[in-house]
Specification:
By secondary structure, this protein is α+β, with helices and mostly antiparallel strands. The chain has a single domain, classed as Beta-grasp domain (Ubiquitin-like (UB roll)). It is about 25% helix and about 25% strand. Strand 3 and strand 4 form a beta hairpin. Belongs to the UPF0125 (RnfH) family.
Length: about 110
């Protein structure tokens, strides 16, 4: 690696597998470039950069965003459940359990 080059990571996870690949680049390398250079799209054909969201260290990023040395690019899968709906369901299940009493000595 020359002085102008740096490394970033590209991360993707399925339910069964988690993968983090290191990619070498130079100043001006974009999120999309790092993803393409990593070869991760060939390994996980379900990755569609036109529809999936990406981020850098947990913050949403655009594909044309420039990267800094040591950045971790993350490719996010679509949510299986709406977080608000899941929270409402858990809350209502908790209320139902409280109404049931929970005491068996009566």
């Amino acid at each position: 690696m020359s002085d102008a080059d740096f490394e970033v990571e590209v991360a993707y996870a399925t339910e069964a597998e988690q993968l983090i690949l290191t990619v070498e680049g130079a100043p001006g390398m974009t999120v999309e470039e790092a993803i393409r250079r990593s070869g991760i799209v060939g390994r996980f054909p379900e990755i569609d950069l036109t529809s999936l969201k990406v981020g850098v260290f947990g913050k949403a990023a655009r594909l044309d965003a420039d990267l800094n040395p040591g950045d971790r690019v993350e490719i996010y899968r679509p949510l299986v459940a709406d977080p608000k709906e899941a929270r409402k369901k858990r809350a209502s299940e908790g209320k139902a359990m409280k109404k049931g009493g929970g005491r068996s000595d009566q």
